[in-house]
Q: What sequence folds into this?
């Protein structure tokens, strides 16, 4: 793929409508640098769906499928899910497991839970832990 910018990545991801489109999406983005993929997809994948924030679910699917190197620590990556992540999109925690391993992500959840008192954030942490423990082999 010739030089591509984040807006082009978002537009391409936004054309995907379901998991059926993922294989072609991955093929189309295969030449994009991992750092650009992470910087573009991760911030969208951790947002609520339904806002004008971009293609949330497809960004999460692509992030998980392409597995670009995470440019955050495990604790910072897990913390990024707390403000607005849609708990039904398991691909984001599964991506974090690919990046850091199951035990590291569970450890991050436990550290964040120990200092968190917001009920919505605590619910998200519980859900992250659920999805991490339910991560399929090879996911």
A:
């Amino acid at each position: 793929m010739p030089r591509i910018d984040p807006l082009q990545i978002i537009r391409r991801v936004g054309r995907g409508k379901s998991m059926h489109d993922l294989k072609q999406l991955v093929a189309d983005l295969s030449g994009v640098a991992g750092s650009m993929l992470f910087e573009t997809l991760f911030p969208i994948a951790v947002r609520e769906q339904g806002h004008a924030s971009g293609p949330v679910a497809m960004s999460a699917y692509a992030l998980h499928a392409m597995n670009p190197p995470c440019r955050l620590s495990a604790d910072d990556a897990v913390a990024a899910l707390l403000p607005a992540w849609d708990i039904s999109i398991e691909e984001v925690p599964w991506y974090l497991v690919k990046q850091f391993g199951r035990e590291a992500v569970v450890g991050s959840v436990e550290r964040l839970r120990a200092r968190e008192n917001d009920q919505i954030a605590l619910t998200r942490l519980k859900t992250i832990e659920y999805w991490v423990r339910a991560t399929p082999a090879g996911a």
Notes: The longest helix spans residues 119-133.
